[in-house]
Predict the structure.
Amino acid sequence: MTSIAVRAPAKINLFLAVDAPGADGYHNLTTVFLALSVFDTVTVSSVEAGAGLRLTVTGTDTAAVPVDSTNLAWRAAVLLAQRTGIDADASITIDKQIPVAAGLAGGSADAAATLVALDGLWGTALDRDQLGELAAELGSDVPFALHGGVAFGAGRGDRLSSVLTRGRTDWVLGIARTGLSTPTVYAELDRLRAQRHVPGAADPAGVLTALRQDDAELLGRGLANDLAVAALSLRPDLRRAVRAGAEAGALGQMISGSGPTVAYLARDPEHAITVAARLSAEGLFAGVRVASGPAPGPRLPRSAR
Ligand code: ATP
């Protein structure tokens, strides 16, 4: 096997409650993740022994993505090689379709897909738990990126448990013209909470029941994100984008993760197209995309298993 391509889905958080930071500065989370059908593709290929790592990024938004050892996919490759005691020789190409710095965890998706793809290419054959441990070292969103589908997340979002779900959910994503930095959004939340009482997301029961019962109306009412107040404080223009959801007939809307992407829930695929067309007409976004979830996490193609 000399070349392996693996798809890496974006994620949104249907529910995200953020605790006060601990002594280490990190925030504990209670979250419900959903992987969506917006994919980067990570292709890894063999190179001659001793050639090291090469990274190429194609697709959209490439200028915003580093192609050196700071790229999360590169870090994933180095970590896998170190832990399995092999030389990190590979060419990695990321076809970027997930908007960058958008609150959709594209970097984490690429890291998870790189672990899976290189584990296949290098024949290191780690099991899911071993890959999961490496994922957790790479970042709090990487374990879910490896898992895909839908999951409940605790701790930093890296302690996952399964969620019962029936059916698919349909979404419209409003992609902003410029991104938001995740650490800046967390710092803004801490700053706002130090100044005044900020009401928080209550509990994820509504979202979990809605997923179990395949009830889109209930899901729309349960969407909640503690980071939204901070993203809106940094980017007041997003208020209009959030309001536009109700006017466009969405069942619910929220800022995705640390933003600035706004995710709008639709009843079904046709309704998603109607909502997307109405939102496009507002001219508020760099792009409007329809997507569905849950999408499967990164998997080796059948020919490479
Ligand atoms: P987070 O995962 O921290 O919530 P996000 O989803 O908002 O972040 P990403 O698209 O993952 O945003 O990118 C955040 C930053 O990480 C980018 O600005 C970029 O500099 C850096 N980065 C490193 N590796 C990647 C990658 N493979 N794809 C995209 N960005 C990357």
Notes: The chain has a mean pLDDT of 96. Residues 106-121 form the longest helix (16 residues). The pocket of adenosine-5'-triphosphate is lined by residues 64-66, 71-73, 94, 100-108, 110, 141, 182, 257-258 (CB under 6 Å).
